[in-house]
Design brief:
This protein is flat. It is mainly alpha-helical.
């Protein structure tokens, strides 16, 4: 987790129908940024576990298409 966490308040104007989606997206990005180091460490541990000739981009595309 990040060494120093601060509260940040941003006021933006968005259409009412997108407000909740926008809030969730911003919170998800903030969570990712605060856990980025931890996530990359886990990715390093998982590297090489799945034997395949496909790139991660191809696997990701197949996952989202399926």
């Amino acid at each position: 987790m990040a060494k120093e966490i601060v509260d940040l308040v941003i006021h933006v104007k968005v259409p009412k129908k997108y407000a909740e989606t926008f809030r969730k997206d911003v919170e998800a990005m903030a969570w990712y940024l605060s856990h980025k180091d931890e996530l990359f460490e886990n990715m390093k541990k998982l590297k090489g576990i799945m034997k395949t000739d496909k790139s991660w981009k191809e696997l990701k595309r197949e996952f989202y298409e399926g």
